[in-house]
Amino acid sequence: MARQAGFFDDDERLKWLSAAGDPLERLSRVMEFELFRPELDAALKRSERAKGGRPPYDAVLMFKILVLQTLYTLSDDQTEYQLRDRLSFMRFAGLGLQDEVPDAKTIWLFREHLVRAGAFDRLFARLDEALKVKGYLAMGGQIVDATVIEARRPRLSRDEKDTLKGGGVPEDWSPARRAQVDTEGRWTIKRGRKRETVKNDKRQALGEIMVPLFGYNNHLGIDRTHGLVRRFSVTPASAHDGAQLPRLLDPANTAAAVWADTAYRSKANLRVLDRRGLTPQFQRPKPRGKAMPAHIGQGNATRARVRAHVEHVFAAEKRRFALIVCTIGLKRATAKIALANLAYNFTRLAWLEGRTAPA
């Protein structure tokens, strides 16, 4: 019987995907996901199943599914659907057409086990060690910055907000209400730059644009040479950026320079850098009520060209991954943001490995 025009069998479809440059196949080639198995198994603490029962899904397979979720901004239900529908997803996860696909509840439960075990810091550390083994040492100094990752905004009265800020929970809240409101996220103000306008031959300063945001801060440090995330920390959005500097410094970086904005310039942070033998390359603030001295402005501009590299990470996570926090609480927010930082390093590694060697 003649084959119908336009019909492909499964092998031909996979070959076509490979020829078209399937990014997930490229990611599988550069990243050995099996190296995460010890940390995953330790977090899951699965029994030997002496009593029988349905065998669990492979831990590495499930971790790959979380990576797919992050890369393509999928809910648990959407992830289940796409795993059933897309050959590229099946191949990346290690599933065949004949295999059973984890449902949305199973995906949620797996992620929740990792959250409760606090496994994401260890998974990130495992990746960092693997990067060093591949030759991607932290080099060239480090760049530190933070950005707000927005979360679902709660609708609260002023009294409820004051109670939460004080570390309490309103007494009249039902258990359902307590479970649905994020009591650990915080509000902050994102300030825009002041601009000047000319009116009647006179310069007038326009007011700052201030945007209220609710959520969590993703504090991170990258190495200058490779642009890989080396350290990260997650806090409520109201936390001061500069206070996180000691947690973000990578002692393995081969250079001493540390680039950061004016929020990190404090006596305490300068003492920390001095004790560790590091050199601060912090932005300097404009003198109050005075024009910015030319030499300070020039130095800030030079440092800003280096600091701009960290914005590539934030742009990838917020635009390409559409990163937002839809969960409740700091632990789950940390898991969501940690997965985004992991996924960014995976895609960054694929790009680094795919570069052509210089002539």
In brief:
The chain is an alpha/beta fold.
Written account of the structure:
The longest helix has 25 residues, at 330-354. β3 (196-199) and β4 form a beta hairpin. It is globular and about 70 Å long. Strands 1, 2, 5, 6, 7 and 8 form a six-stranded mixed β-sheet that branches. The chain has a two-stranded antiparallel ribbon with strand order 3-4. It has helices at 10-19, 23-30, 37-44, 59-72, 76-85, 87-93, 104-117, 120-133, 158-165, 175-180, 245-248, 267-275, 294-307, 309-320, 330-354; strands at 142-150, 186-191, 196-199, 202-205, 210-223, 229-236, 257-260, 279-282. It has two domains: 10-117, no CATH class; 137-354, Nucleotidyltransferase, domain 5, CATH 3.30.420.10. With 359 residues, the chain is an alpha/beta fold.
Classify the beta-strand content into a percent band: 5-15%
CATH C-level class of the largest domain is Alpha Beta
Name of the CATH homologous superfamily of the largest domain: Ribonuclease H-like superfamily/Ribonuclease H
Compute the gyration radius: what is it? 24 Å
Q: How would the global form be characterised?
A: globular
The CATH topology assignment of the largest domain is Nucleotidyltransferase, domain 5
Q: What is the straight-line distance between the termini?
A: 53 Å
Mean pLDDT: 90
Tell me about the largest β-sheet.
Answer: 6 strands, mixed
**Helix fraction bin:** 40-55%
Q: How many DSSP-defined strands?
A: 8
H/E topology pattern: HHHHHHHHEHHEEEEEHEHEHHH
Give unreliable regions as ranges.
1-7
What is the CATH architecture term of the largest domain? 2-Layer Sandwich
Secondary structure tally, helices? 15
- Count structural domains: 2
Structural category is alpha/beta
